[in-house]
Amino acid sequence: MKTLPGPGFEELLHPHTGDLADIRPTSHGSESAFTGMVDSAQGAFFVKAVPNRPGGRRDSLVREGLVNPYVQPLSPPVRWRAEEDRWLVLGFEVIDGRACDFTPGSPDLPVIVDIISRIGALPLPGIAHDWAETRWNRYADDRDAELFRGDTLLYTDIHENNLLIGERGTWAVDWAWPTRGAAFIDPALLVVQLIAAGHDAEAAEEWASGCPAWRAADPSAVSAFAAATLRMWRERVERNPDPAWMKAMLLATQEWADHRGIAVG
């Protein structure tokens, strides 16, 4: 059995799990100190844990726990929450699914579009009223940033490892930073991921057009968002030029901006 992340961690889980039989950390979930499957006397759980100190990682896990009742059954339910001075932990119901394939020709593409559309149809819960989406605002002028405002519950963490397909359903997992904003933002983020997976920009937008929020969007708002997204990835790659996946995202956003005829300074 692999080691848990720190002293007192197993004791914190014990009231919810009983004795642990096996621990299988995942290779994803870099925003958490620990993510993994835990087999125990009380069953199997998917566990996410962060250090219990103020800041983005704790705030993100708190928000994920708060939004969870409102995003089921698209997301697996939180079965328990544990907290002490050192750790904040959520224990999720285990689901049996595989990562989606975003590449051209994938049979998963209609399912992916359906998941994004279903997310876009979720009612905005009251707890999300103050979760205004602002991450793109600094990369746009005030007039364009206004176009990103809205009252749709946004997922914003769209990539192949977070959209899962199984025999019993499909899920969007890792609601690490849900926000309130313009409905077209999630389909727009899907466009970027599809381009990064090998689609040309026209084909990626064609797939996004399967989402009602994309079809209803003001094209000028989408273009403003594409420009802001390109500026965002330029800055990120300039600060951290080594990760290949970040360079891929920059290339994807540049291709998207070129396709929309946007000259981004």
Automatic annotation (TrEMBL):
Species whose genome carries this gene: Actinomadura yumaensis
SUPFAM superfamilies found in the cross-reference section: Protein kinase-like (PK-like)
GO molecular function: kinase activity
Protein name: Protein kinase
Keywords: Kinase, Transferase
Organism domain of life: Bacteria
